[in-house]
Automatic annotation (TrEMBL):
Cofactor(s) essential for the protein: Mn(2+)
Membrane topology: Single-pass type II membrane protein
Keyword Disulfide bond: yes
Compositionally biased spans, kind Basic and acidic residues: 80-89
Annotated region described as Disordered, given as residue ranges: 45-92, 370-413
Recorded family membership: Belongs to the glycosyltransferase 31 family. Beta3-Gal-T subfamily.
Localisation per UniProt entry: Membrane
Protein name as it appears in the record: Glycoprotein-N-acetylgalactosamine 3-beta-galactosyltransferase 1
Pfam families associated with the record: Fringe
Entry keyword set: Disulfide bond, Glycoprotein, Glycosyltransferase, Manganese, Membrane, Metal-binding, Nucleotide-binding, Signal-anchor, Transferase, Transmembrane, Transmembrane helix
Pathway assignment: Protein modification; protein glycosylation
């Protein structure tokens, strides 16, 4: 049998393979070099070079790329008060609350976020506070930031919170009645905050926010959703809590949990910020997260942390919602437009009646009952509306007696 000739066996096949492999690697390296220098294009005239990619993707067919985009470099401006839609607005009650419920807002930020985030807070909702302070570790005239004596980083947020309230206590305690802390990606509807606080005295030792239930017996308020302390609560925190061994003395720890422990230690109440039908007002995520049913898995941490059982759909959120977290710079302007400018023609809104003032005893009773009393249905809520003649000179006013008001009048058991 004749064996077929398989060609020379002098090693040409290995050399061919090595040559092919070397050529492939060399080609890949050259292609990588070309692609990496495309933006620089050093062989082209300066006027043709693309110096840096655009900060905002301008494809109008999708908004997904805009979520991480930086905010506009210039202020977007405001609609003039004399324009038709705004000229017919009646802001008298909002102006009254601006005078009677003075709110100092302080915004937690850091040098890397001054221009990219904090500036857009300053240009949108923060201007509606009676006073606003941006707490950082360096002074910056762009946002008039306060340089606190702390290091930056997540592990120093608790130290930063303590220093911020100490600074407020020493310099601005008499400038406001309530003191709202927010992150530089939190959006706050300040008018709704004042409306909620109207029932309470700043002399009450109380604070409000999105109430979580682990780690602290009475619960604590989510840091991202923002929380608001009464003047008395600020006093107790700075004078009694911060020096106390019952409060964490180092810089580490979760800022909101540690604040909650300190509040409980100095007998500052964790208030119920829900509206009269039990809907939430402070939210740790953007509206989409709370509004859309089944947006997250049933074992998502928020559903386990929240003090009150959250509802899905429109039942999640009060019509007088106060705050949302993880709001991008662009979304700050979108929310500002939707809340303060867009109007459905022909639907004329009238201000809700201001709620009654509550005593400290009322607050404690309502909070105790809220832990055991089921949320009222819309039909039950309507049933508690009554009319009373409170008129002077023959004027009649409609008074809404809410579910919480009715329960607050029951004997304390």
């Amino acid at each position: 049998m004749k064996i077929p000739d398989l060609g020379p066996r002098n090693g040409s096949h290995p050399r061919t393979f090595i040559t092919l492999l070397f050529g492939t690697v060399l080609g890949f390296m050259f292609a990588t070099f070309i692609s990496s220098t495309t933006l620089r294009q050093p062989w082209m005239p300066e006027s043709y070079r693309q110096r840096e990619p655009p900060s905002i993707v301008s494809d109008p067919h999708t908004g997904n790329e805009l979520r991480g985009a930086s905010g506009p470099e210039q202020d977007v401006g405001q609609h003039a008060a004399h324009e038709e839609a705004h000229a017919h607005e009646n802001a008298s009650i909002a102006q009254q609350l601006h005078r009677e419920v003075r709110v100092l807002c302080w915004v937690m930020t850091n040098p890397s976020n001054h221009k990219s985030k904090a500036l857009h807070v300053k240009r949108t909702w923060a201007g509606r506070c009676n006073k606003v302070l941006f707490m950082s570790s360096v002074e910056d005239p762009l946002i008039d930031s306060v340089a606190l004596p702390v290091s930056e980083g997540r592990n120093n947020l608790w130290a930063k919170t303590k220093e911020a309230f100490k600074y407020i206590y020493q310099n601005h305690l008499d400038d406001a009645d309530w003191f709202m802390k927010a992150d530089d990606d939190t959006y706050v509807v300040v008018e709704n905050l004042r409306y909620m606080l109207y029932s309470y005295s700043p002399s009450h030792p109380i604070y409000f926010g999105c109430r979580f239930k682990p780690f602290v017996k009475q619960g604590y308020m989510s840091g991202g959703a923002g929380y608001v302390l009464s003047k008395e609560a600020v006093k107790r925190f700075v004078e009694d809590a911060i020096p106390s061994p019952l409060c964490r003395q180092d810089s580490d720890g979760a800022e909101d949990v540690e604040l909650g422990k300190c509040m409980e230690a100095v007998k500052v109440l964790a208030g119920d910020s829900r509206d009269t039908v039990g809907r939430g007002r402070f939210f740790p995520f953007v509206p989409e997260h709370h509004l859309i049913p089944n947006h997250v898995d049933k074992d998502f941490w928020y559903l386990k942390y929240t003090y009150y059982k959250p509802d899905e759909g429109l039942e999640c959120c009060s019509d007088n919602a106060i705050s949302f977290h993880y709001v991008s710079p662009n979304q700050m302007y979108v929310l500002d437009y939707l809340i303060y400018h867009l109007r459905p023609y022909g639907i004329v809104a009238h201000s809700q009646p201001l709620p009654k003032k509550l005593s400290l005893g009322d607050i404690v009773r309502v909070d105790d009952l809220g832990k055991t009393t089921p949320k009222p249905s819309a039909q039950q809520h309507r049933r508690y509306k009554v009319s009373s003649n409170r008129g002077k000179a023959g004027n009649e006013m409609q008074e809404e007696v809410t579910f919480s008001d009715m329960k607050a009048k029951e004997p304390n058991t």
